[in-house]
Amino acid sequence: MIFAKGVPESTYQDKRIEFAVLHGMFDLERIGSLTDSYTTLDAVLRQDMLYHYAGSISALYWIALCQYPQYGHLQLVDTVDRNFPQIARALRADEARLTPLDLVSLGPGDGEIDIRILRHLEKNFDVRFYYCLDFSFELLRHAVFRVSTAKILKNGFGIKATWGNFLESGNLIAGDEGVRLFALTGFTLGNYNEAELLGKISRQMTQHDFLLVDAHLHNLKHWDGHRPVSKADLLPLLRNYSQDTTHRFVFGPVEVATMATVADVTFDYMINREMTSVPKALNTTIFCRDLRTRMRFSGEPVNRKRLNLACTTFYDCANLKKWFPTVGFRCIWEHQENCIALFLLKRVMD
Q1: The predicted structure's pLDDT at residue 1
Q2: Domain residue limits at 103
Q3: Separation CA 110–CA 44 (nearest Å)
Q4: What letter does residue 258 receive in the DSSP assignment?
């Protein structure tokens, strides 16, 4: 357990909580200085959106977006909560030894989905540890606070929080005994190239572990996967992203790095398949036009006719399920509800 210098251990009221820092956060060969990150605009607008969650402003924008009904996070929380009894039965049916059972949250976000999952796990299994990993220390701290104080939880399990990129967690998550349920929720799958993401997660799993993943679906049932798709085709889904709360979140890194605000630009969307590796999946890129401002720290002028801000992916449920075995996972349970899909996966061992 890590304690602040000069503070006696006896002053800590909850000694079951541990925080660790992933060594890669300070690997000088792989990261730049803090000033480099915020004096180059393109550095904070990474494709994996890490800087959309890091720092107080961006973290607060994400928490606000999660609470906004039109965005869809609340519907996802409800879907996971209502269907978890089925997931628990699928876990028990597929794996004989489920004691102890650990939850490994890969990006806990606002913590609400993890609270619901832990409540169901406590009812069905012996939960030993809750592991949570996030690049955003602010969101990590927020999730730990919410989980550790949630009244619906028994709070008997240990909490091990790691600050770092969860794709590089390595052996920080013990896997020598029991079973672990990895959770990749909050539509995180759609922020990465899926093959690379799931490949790295798979290498951290044993033959007994499970992966719960959600996906945002489109409703283009007659799309052949090749012809161009217009914004009008996806208008019902894009409406959820055409809100001020969404714009503030995707613009957050620009607001931190420059003097601009969301009121200074206009937003638009582009549909392509540049990032996804899943058949019949579509990337939606949110971008802004006519950014005229200065960098906050250097004062350097910024003039961009167009600036890509964030990207997410919509999937076809059937094609996504068929795709999982190509990256080493078999699906043991699935559920589709409106524009949300849930999958319980298990690694296929070589």
Answers
A1: 40
A2: 71-220+317-347
A3: 21
A4: B
